[in-house]
Design brief:
This protein is mainly beta. It contains one helix and five strands, in the order E-E-E-E-E-H. It has a single domain, classed as Nucleic acid-binding proteins (OB fold (Dihydrolipoamide Acetyltransferase, E2P)), CATH 2.40.50.
Length: 85
């Protein structure tokens, strides 16, 4: 299993990219994220995944979040955004 950082993830479209330690981009689709319920990733989140070659480059499979606390805090921040006023 490889580790990487989520570069960006579009929740409505259900896909994004993970950056490897070598700086390569790996495509990730929500269907490959392990877990129940609404599956998404947060930008900057550390994940573990398997990668395989696809027609346009690498794609992630079996994506697992490495820090559940980080995920919970990020979900709370999205649910209760801080006002800049």
């Amino acid at each position: 299993m490889a580790k990487g950082i989520v570069k960006w993830f579009h929740r409505k479209k259900g896909y994004g990219f993970i950056t490897t330690d070598a700086g390569e981009d790996v495509f990730v689709h929500y269907t490959t994220i392990q877990g129940d319920g609404f599956r998404f990733l947060n930008d900057g989140e550390t994940v573990e995944y398997q990668a395989e070659k696809a027609a346009k480059g690498l794609k992630a499979t079996a994506v697992t979040r490495l820090n559940e606390l980080q995920t919970s805090e990020a979900a709370a921040a999205v649910a209760n955004p801080v006002s800049e006023e």
